[in-house]
Each structure stands twice: as structure tokens, then as C-alpha cells.
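Running log. JK asked me to keep both predictions on one page so they can be read side by side. First protein, sequence followed by its C-alpha cells:
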Amino acid sequence: MLTREQIREIIEECRRIGVSGLGNGRRTTIPFIKIDILRADGLDFTGVLGNSAIFINKNTHKMLSQYHSSWVANKTIAIKESLLLKPTIDIIGAIVHETGHAFNVEAKIANTEGNAYIFEIEVLLKLLESDYLSSFGCDKEDVGSYFQSRLANYHMETRNPYLAKRVDEIVEEFGLYNPRKEQPDEKPSLSEDINYEVKVVSQRLLFFTSLSTLQRKHEYISGSNLGY
């Protein structure tokens, strides 16, 4: 289980990498990110495609800030408390992914899952290359296992050509099992595209189902209580 200080360190590493830039030339200064850890007593809530974390964009903030007065739009990540019980690499991956949404907003690019996946993949590779992940007991095998678990998600967005290229590279580098290679490529229809977008929006909203009935525990990470 990661400590609050460790989660803050991971976000700060993401911010540093955001300044130096990604392989596609995108770079920006990610603002300070607040973390809100929510406890759902007996009730489940998830982010997109089962993620246990969500970036609070302006739309989410508008809908739900009445329940969370400390949230700041585009500068807050809410996570399910049970995420902290998952394997360390899964926690790191979730935090990096949601910070990727903050990167998208600040860089003024489309805040899509595809662009967040690009950030997620490239930041994890940089953290592995710099040996930063070893301080959390994670190695290349752990990163490979994480990428394998995320591969189906990545493939849902590989109409993004740069993401498709990065996915092909990690499949080769980490020797991932890629079932898509065994299937003929099929271009989704317009109706499938629309249905997918609707599904993603619906799944994101599921994160906060029945929030008014939850007993919420808030652990806010701020620069003041972490020495930053």
C-alpha cells in the first residue's frame, strides 16, 4: 500500500515529465493536483472501463462539486480507497493515467482516453528507464504485466495512429500476448463509434452512482501537509 507521500511523489514525477515532453512533441506544465480518497462502504463505484480513479474535469465538477466542496475543476483526482490495496504497479498506473488527463487539459489537446493512454505508456516507460520504479519494488516484469492487463483498453483507442505505434512497440518490447494479431482488422462502423462514446460517458458517470448515500472519507493531499 502506497503512502500519501509516495502518491504525491509519483504525481510530481509526472509533472516533471510533462515539462520535458512526450515523444509526440506534446509538453506542458501540469498544475498541482489534489487527491481525494473516497470510501464507498458496501457500494461500488468505478471510473471508465473499471478504473478505480477519475480525473475531475469541469463537467464532473459542475455535476458533483456540491458533495465535494474542496474539489477544484481540472486539478483534482478522486480515487476509490480500495485502489490502495491493489498491486503497487496498478496503483502507479492508475495515478499516472489520471494525471495524463490533467496533462491533456493543460496542453489544450483532446482530453480523450487515447491521449491519456499515450501519457500513461510513455511516463511508465520513462519511470522504468530511470530506475525510479525500483524504489517502489517494481521492475520491467511488473510493467510488462501491467501493460498486458491494459492492452485491451489500449486497443479500443488505437485509431489514434501515435497510440497504435506505441502499443505495437510495447507489445514487442515486453513480449505481450496480442490477440488482435490473430484477428483480421475491422474498421468500426459509425454507429459503433457513437455507441462506444456513449458507453464511455455512461461508465464515467457510474463512478459516482449513489454518492449521496455513501459515507465518504476524505484524505486530501496538499502541499502544506506533505512539505511541498
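And the second, directly underneath as requested:
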Amino acid sequence: MASLFLARYFLLSVGARLARENDLPVGIDVGCDGLFAGKPRSYRNDNAVYLINRVAAFAGKPRSYGIPARPSSVGQCPPLLAIPESTTPMNAPRTPRPARKKPDSATPAKAVEPRPKASLHPRNRHQGRYDFPELIKSTPELAKFVITNPYGKESIDFASPDAVRVFNRALLKSFYGVAHWDIPADYLCPPVPGRADYVHFLADLLASVNDGEIPRGAPVKVLDIGMGANCVYPLIGYSDYRWHFLGSEIDPTAVAAAKAIVQSNGLNKAIQLRQQTNPKHILLGLLEPGERFDLTMCNPPFHASMDEATKGSERKWRALGRADPKRKLPVLNFGGQSAELWCEGGEARFVTQLIAESAHFQHKVLWFSTLVSKASNLPAIQIALKKAGVLESQVVEMSQGQKQSRFVAWTFQTKSEQQVWRERWVRKG
């Protein structure tokens, strides 16, 4: 019996030594019975393993050690084999894996499809891709501006003010029935789908105080602050909801351009224009006695200086992949006069002034609102709303393509006053 234990000790020592010298894992084969039956065995690759067997208390001799050709199934004892002389040494280097084939540098890289665009408002007419053949039918001059983008899709060069202007003309004609539309060179030409989203979300705001129903027609009056030369908000709002608008503007050239659009489309009764004669004011001195508005909307200047506006132009130019030091850059991505692009203090200063002035017209307007392009301005805007005594406010997030935007809306009227206000929308007779 003693000899069996000595043999076991000797074999354990030799096995451990060989394992260390050959950098091999050591496993214990507990056989297929006894206390440790069913425990996993350790193998090195598919060829070799050191099996250090337990010795049964009443076994006549220790079990043999060998290298199983393959791991045996659980519950079966492995076959015992002697090490053949031709066996490859345990420490022989492994067969190297074949190197990965590198892509041919001459093969042109395939353009990666852009991420799916964020959703527009459900009522927005501009869902999905544009049907350029149909747009060209309504506006033939668009054809010369249509290009194929890197993804093989029809598009236009959005870095070109001329292309964007004609594209907007085609959209307004095809989707909103605007027969004649044009703006002077270098005036702001905003993308139509994003502007339509603002209008639709404001319609939802009115519906929230009208039992979920959007009020439509002439009884709904909207003030567009800083309408610009493009007159886009009134055109969309009238087409989709038949609302009536008053557009204000400090630039006489912009007023004249907007007036030409209104008159050429026979919309004089639905869209009125008014110049703000004091450029230091927004609402003060603009409204006449007895005027009331269900909504105000505004796309404020968002830069604090012309230098900042120029840098913004360059960033957008590069983002569109058209940076060229030898080429004269446009005033901004879609053109734009200084009053449309910047004011002292930038967007935060303009919006906080608008909020302060709105307190003078608490009972003349149901919901005030303005776009806010920079989310970092929201804390200052919230402070201004509280200071003005606003009773209710909302920040409404919007998404157009890869761009995130938002508008802030506020009211000075209580819930009961809002319910009384909606009686204006009930048609008489």
C-alpha cells in the first residue's frame, strides 16, 4: 500500500515538472467514477494532455498516463495510449495563420448611406425623398440645378444660393399652390420643410386649448415677427390652415419683396404687411389698438456680430463639402441680410427682449412663440419668462433631417381665460 502512495507522489512530481518545463496546462483525470466523476478534464489543443489520475484506495496498481488522441465524451474513460516517437514536440511553434487580405487601394470606396433622417411633423407635406421629375414639371428651371449626390440620389447643391432659391420656388408651387415667388439676392432663403414644421406644431398648440381640434380659417390671426423677404410662414400657414397673417419687418426692401409675393398670388386679404419703424423695438409701437392675435411666431437673428455670422457661413460651407479658398463664399448658407442674421447680443438678447415686451400685450395675444436655435440659450430664456410673469410656457423640440431645433411658447392667460379665448374661433351664422 505504501508503495502505491510513493508511486503516486513520484508521478505527480514528474508530471508537474514536465508541465512547467514545457509550459503545459496540467489537468487531473478523475476517471469516470468516484467522488469526482463527471468533472471536466483539461486538454492542450487536440493532441496532448497530462493526466494525473487519482489512485483508488484498493487499486492493484496506478493507472497509466498517456495522451488521448481526442477528448473523450463525458462519462467515458479515455483510451490510454503510449506516446509515439514521432509525436511532434509539445513546444513546437504553431502553424501561422494566413494573413488577412487587405482591400485593394485601387478599388473605389463605396459611399456610406447617411443615417435615416429624423421624422418631420406627421402633417408635414415633405415626408420622404423629393420627386424631382414632378418638381421640374412645375418649375422647369430647377432642372439645371439637379445633381446626383455621392449616394446616387437626385438632389441639389445646397451650398448654392441660386439652387436653393429655385428649389424653394418649386416646393412652394408644387405643395402650396404659390404661383409666383422670388426674393432679392443675398436675402435669407430658409428650407421650406423646417419652416412648415414650426407652423404645424403651433397648430397643435392651438388644438390643445380647443378640445384637440385645430382651429382653421380667417378667425385665426397670426403675427409673424421679422417675416423677411421670403414670406414663407404666412404662405404655408394660409395654404394648410387658411389662417390670416400680419407680417412685421424693419427692412423696407424685405417688406417690398414680401408685398410683391403677396400681391402676385392674390393674397392681399389673407396676408398683411407692416414695417416696424423703430429698429430698437420688436412689439412696442407695432400693434394697433384693438388688434388681437392667437399666435406670434419668430425666427430671430441668431448671431451676435457679422464676424460670427461669417464664421457660421464658413462652417456650413465646409459641412456641405464645398470649401474652396479661391471661391467667394456667400453671405450665409442661404444668403441673408445683416438684420436677418445678427443683432447685438445675439439670439439670447433678442428673445429675452421679445419676452419682456410681450408682457405689455398679455391680453392681446394667446400664445407667443419664437424659434431658439441654440439650446445653450434656454436657461437665460427661462429666467426671462419667470421675470415677465408668464403663467405657462413650453419648449417644443423639432427634428428636420440631421438638424435639431426647437421653439419656446408662452402665455400670460389662465386656463379659464384660454377657454374663453377660443370662442373667437367659432364661426357665426
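Observation for JK regarding the second prediction: The two ends are 117 Å apart (CA to CA).
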